[in-house]
Amino acid sequence: MDESAVSSAVSSAPVTEAVGEALNQTVEAVVDEVVPPTLIERLDAFSQTWYGNLLTTVFLIVVVVLLTIFLGRAINRFFRNRFEKMLADGNPGATAFSYLRYLALGGLYFGAFAVIVSNIPWLASGMNKLFAAGGVLAVVAGLASQQALGSMVSGAMILFFKPFVIGDVINMVSEGVTGTVEEITLRHTILRTVENKRVIIPNDSMSSAIIENANHTESKVCLLLDLGISYESDITHAMHIMREEIQHHPDFYDNRTEEDKQKNAPPVVVRVQELGESAVLLRAQLWAKDSGVAFAMRSDLLQSIKERCGQEGVEIAYPHLVVVSDRTE
User: Fold this and answer.
1) What's the pLDDT at 62?
2) Which of 199, 205, 249, 258 is nearest to 223 (CA)?
3) Burial (0-12, 13-18, 19+ Cβ within 10 Å), 261
4) Tens digits of per-residue pLDDT, 151-178?
5) Exposed, middle or buried, 13 (CB in 10 Å: 0-12/13-18/19+)?
6) CATH architecture of 156-213
7) Which of 30, 60, 121, 219 is the most buried (most CB within 10 A)?
């Protein structure tokens, strides 16, 4: 670099400093015009007083609470709308997305609580003392929250391994509880029964229970429909009635493979299940696209088969009591 370039750079430095100083003075002058220095000094002095500190703290807490409420509603609205769209599209990630909503809300509320506590001196000092004696406190808190933490971990395991997702129809075999999975929260799983009641079960119980999932892998189900006829009735005709009524039902699902169809296998399988004391028990395999349809379909068929048997002379068996009197006249 030649001497002229060096001298120009050195001479430009004071000019830059002068411009910066002039700019700072201009900004200060504008601020002084908008907010007089006396007002700023008064506000600063007032905030140092006991009442000023109290009002500042209250104002901050109100702002944090209002902001938390606003963000909580926004998060709820976003996650719910997105979850409903994913559920309608059949997206398998809908269950995990619903679970994330509770994690986001939990993080928001915890952050708001931490901000509020840190701005209340006596409360912050009390919390610090509790944390300082954290050995005993940690043991007590751990024992008290053991089940809650276990449910949270179990909920995460359910989301990871996916034994069931929201919308599945499941049956807790050990408890005899059947319903549709409606929601999976941090602590519990909510099932909606056919009576439209909600059964709330802790996640740790769901994780360790034996679950019968009607929608796992595939949703089609097979129900068994039994019919007991008298020994005097025509078995072949009764089986024919059952096949026709099942096939003609609008919700009937043909579960035959292409190979079965080529072999002319019957769409409905009906067999003699048992020769009972007072009835011949016939059993049909009833296929439907899902468990909800199958339940209504089975109820319809019980009525239609019974009515048709009555019309065509097939007697449905029921217990008879025969009284024999050996009294002599």
Assistant:
1) 85
2) 249
3) exposed
4) 777 877 887 778 888 888 888 887 888 8
5) exposed
6) Roll (2.30)
7) 219
Other Cβ atoms less than 10 A from the Cβ of 269: the count is: 16
Enumerate the domain spans of the chain.
15-47, 50-144, 156-213, 221-311
Q: Which of 62-76, 130-144, 285-299 is least confident?
A: 130-144
Over residues 247-286, the pLDDT tens digits come to 999 988 888 888 888 888 888 889 999 998 889 999 998 8
Structure tokens at 245: 């009524």
Stated length of the chain = 329
CA distances for 60 relative to 42, 57, 64, 66, 260, angstroms: 19, 5, 6, 10, 74
Of residues 45, 59, 46, 42, the one with CA closest to residue 120: 59
Q: Range with the lowest mean pLDDT among 9-13, 61-65, 92-96, 241-245?
A: 9-13
Task: Say which range, 50-64, 87-101, 119-133, 277-291, has the weakest mean pLDDT.
Answer: 119-133
CB 246 within 8 A of CB 302: no
Residue 1 to residue 73: CA distance in whole angstroms: 63
> 221-311, what's its fold?
Alpha-Beta Plaits (3.30.70)
Residue 256 zone, left/alpha/beta (φ > 0; ψ -120 to 50; rest): beta
> Can you tell me the distance from the alpha carbon of 238 to that of 310, in angstroms, rounded to the nearest whole number?
11
Determine the Cα–Cα distance for residues 28 and 20; give it in Å rounded to an integer: 12
